Amino acid sequence: MGLYIKELEDQLFEVHKFVERMVMTLTVMGFFSINREFLTYLQVLRRRDFGSSLGELGLTLITMGTHEEKTGEEEAATTSKSFHDLGSCCDHLAINIQEQVKDEMEKTVFVLEEWLRIMEGAKEALRVHGATVAQSLAFMSDYEKKDRALKQGVPQGKANITESDVNEARRKVEESKQRAELLGQRLREEMMRLKRMKAVELRTLLFRFVEIQIKNGFVVEEETEIGG
What we know:
- 93% of the residues lie in helices and 0% in strands.
- By secondary structure, it is an all-alpha fold.
- The chain is rod-shaped, with a radius of gyration of 33 Å.
């Protein structure tokens, strides 16, 4: 019986260590991932403001070109065309930036919300798992007391401890241990799924980033040539 109790205690201790590692892993992953996505979101907001300013500049240049054309002065037509071309270049770049920002902002917000959802789900799973482990330890303590009382013939409370009481306490220990092991396995599977999902998502984000930069690089080059 002592060996049986020792084995159960060792198993529960391993489960406890696993839960501690899980909490630390989730905390670190959650901090760096959410922090990274939040910084990306701030960068997108800055590009959005830049796009708006660029659009306003384009409108101002086009207005100046129209005004210059109405002056009737020498070379007014050439100056007006330069203002219009430069204003159109700014306007096209602003539109392109705003489209890019809209796409990236939607994706960034989605990633942030997804991470928060995953973290909340993981925390809830850990809470349930921790409660189950705590219950197992309580059942183990009760079982040890009743088993010791039965062997020593010492009454616990108002009634003597019977073999049936000890068997019932042992059954509760076994059931709670099985629940803890099942929840632990589910947590491991969830962590593996999360790691695989984030790896795929990271590759997708990198390819998407390169694609956007190449696309917008060509647009900037074309618009700059038009403006020149």
